[in-house]
Specification:
Layout (H helix, E strand, L loop, with lengths): L1 E2 L2 H8 L4 H5 L8 E2 L8 E2 L33 H11 L1
Parallel strand pairs: 1-2
Antiparallel strand pairs: 1-3
């Protein structure tokens, strides 16, 4: 997400990982900068299919897929969710 000012950035940061879910991507970042047409925010989706493995649960491509040795085919977030359900 690119936002025009710090106030908009702070508002969006409150939504955390929901911003990634909103556009169906694995990760997100928020930066201040020029926005298209003077809008409050713009979204750029970067294809990471070549760089990151897909999570077997959420199908999101993230750099942390495989970071949990107990769940090597899941993202850290999905591994935590599966662990919580299994407990």
């Amino acid at each position: 997400y690119t936002v025009a000012d710090a106030a908009t950035k702070a508002k969006l940061e409150a939504y955390g990982v929901d911003l990634a879910d909103l556009v169906g991507c694995g990760e997100y970042s928020i930066v201040e900068g020029a926005t298209a047409g003077g809008s409050a925010a713009t979204v750029e989706v970067v294809d990471r299919r070549e760089a990151y493995a897909a999570c077997a649960r959420s199908w999101k491509r993230r750099r942390d897929v495989g970071s949990d040795p107990e769940y090597p085919d899941l993202t850290a977030r999905d591994a935590a969710a599966v662990r919580a359900i299994s407990a």
